[in-house]
Structure formats: C-alpha cells, structure tokens
Amino acid sequence: xxxxxxxxxxxxxxxxxxxxxxxxxxxxxxxxxxxxxxxxxxxxxxxxxxxxxxxxxxxxxxxxxxxxxxxxxxxxxxxxxxxxxxxxxxxxxxxxxxxxxxxxxxxxxxxxxxxxxxxxxxxxxxxxxxxxxxxxxxxxxxxxxxxxxxxxxxxxxxxxxxxxxxxxxxxxxxxxxxxxxxxxxxxxxxxxxxxxxxxxxxxxxxxxxxxxxxxxxxxxxxxxxxxxxxxxxxxxxxxxxxxxxxxxxxxxxxxxxxxxxxxxxxxxxxxxxxxxxxxxxxxxxxxxxxxxxxxxxxxxxxxxxxxxxxxxxxxxxxxxxxxxxxxxxxxxxxxxxxxxxxxxxxxxxxxxxxxxxxxxxxx
Length: 363
Known about the structure:
It comes from Actinomadura barringtoniae. The chain crosses the membrane at residues 6-28, 35-55, 67-86, 181-199, 205-229, 241-258. Helix content is 69%, strand content 1%. It is mainly α. It has 2 domains: 7-93 and 115-282; 321-362, no CATH class. Helix 2 packs antiparallel against helix 7, helix 2 packs parallel to helix 8 and helix 4 (117-146) packs parallel to helix 6. It is elongated. The protein starts with 6 loop residues before the first helix and ends with a helix.
C-alpha cells in the first residue's frame, strides 16, 4: 500500500471524516422514532471499533516503541474509570405537581422524589463520548498524517459515521446541545492532522493516549447498550435486536479478518499491520530476542561445509538384507503351512516316520 499523505491529502481526509460524522448524525435525527435500534447498532459498532482498531493499535505501537505493556493496560483502565466516574452521579428530581398539593410537604412529600439517573447517565455518556472521540480522533489523525494508506482512510470514514450516530443518539435522548460537541468531533481530526504534520507527537506517548481513548470508548459503548435496554423495560423488540446484531456482525467481520488475517500468519506479509512489521524488523538483530539470528550466535542458513542431516540408523549391507529377507520368507512359509494343517506343522510327523523307519531297519 502506497502512502498518500502530503498536506492536501491530510486536509481531504479530515474533511471526509467530518462529512462522515455529519452523515451519521443526520441518520440519528431522521430516525428519532427508532432510537433504541440506533443505540443498539451504534453501541455495538463503537465496541467493535474500540476492541478491533484502537486497542490493537495501541498494543502494537507499544511493542514497536518499547513501551511496557503494563502501561497500556493501566491507561485503558484509567480511561474506563474516567467515564465511569462521570456517569455514577445520581440526582433527584420532582414530578410536575401542583403547588397547592393536598399532601403535606408539597413536592418534598414522601414518594414525590424519583431518581433521574438514566437521564444523567445519558447526558454524561454523551459528553464522555464526545471527549473520547475528540481525543481519539486527534491522536489517530496525528498518527495517520505521518503513516497512512488508502485502506486506513476508508476505515476512518466508515467508523466515523457510527461515532457521529452514537454521539447524536446519546445527546438527543438526554436533551443536550449537540452542535458544540459535534463541532468538536469534526474539528479534532483537522487539529490532529496539523499536529502530526507540524509537530509530531512523541512515539512513546501515542500508544498510551490510544489506550486511554479505547477505555473511554468501551465504557461508552456499554453505557449505550444499558440505556437501550432501559428504554424498553430491559427487553428491546426482537426485530431491533436481530437487525442490530446483523449490522454489527457485518461490520465487525471485515475488521477482524483484516486485523488478524496477516499478522498471525506471516509477520512480513502484505496484510500485516505496519506496527507489527516494524517491530519484527526492529528486533531482528537484537541479542536475546527469540527468532533473531543473533540470539543463537550463528546464521540460520546452513553453509556449504555444514554436516549433512543424520539418518535414523546404520544402512544394512546387501548380504544382511538378503538374510533378513530369507528369514522372513521362512516365517511366512511356516505360517501358511500351520494354517493349512489346522495349527499343526508337518515336521513332527515326518520325524516320527523317519524314526519308525530306522527302528524297522534295526529290527
């Protein structure tokens, strides 16, 4: 795959990501009656993107840049916990009752308080989604501005639509303002591309930031699934579940195959991610690294003076081979004779006959 990223291509890709996000947002606005279906689909897509794109990229970048993998795990956990802290707030509200209520205490009477945690979770879930998407897109665009390909650009456009749809669904359900967060989601790729072209991010910081964004996206996806279940009393319609499962499967299958198809078979193949190829190339000559020629101190290719491969045993001589064949022939002949005589050989009757003949001659 050939890199396609001068400055004009970076701007074109950022504009395409912005247009894809707006298209996903428009889909959520037009289909407001099917908000449960949109939540199921987009939450599943966000979970797939986080587990098959963002987190593997962070892991492979950490291997390439010699960042400890424990830092990646801790960063993902911190991103998950950050969104969790935002969505754990509980508030109390009052239903619309008359001021001159007959109940003592008015709006503060027993039974008049109710938890509005689902709406609060929806609001903070939308804000957390916008923040996670902004940070993820900034880092992703900065990395893509330096090393990219046409396939990576296509994958960016595809999952940008699902991200815009999820963001709009969460914020509309919570009745929050959409324009500021949607503008942030659209501007962040341009900022990331400019940062990547002008002032590249440190190599060791990119995998950690990607892991944080992955943790945020995973928690946001789980929150969207929970809220979709809450809207229908814990059981969405079977038609919505089937459509959502089919859509997520159709999107997830190509991503998983593209991710694992070449990296698990041939580290230097055309389908291998660049991070894994760079890692295998960088560790090819290091001492102590399994699979490197210098790890064993000798070349992996045998030279012209190398000893031939040992055989399983000594080669028998022609005379010994004939003798073994003769013995095998005699054993097989005895077996055939024993079967014909019902298990008795003809050797003993022949000896008795010769003995009887000698006795007869003596007498």
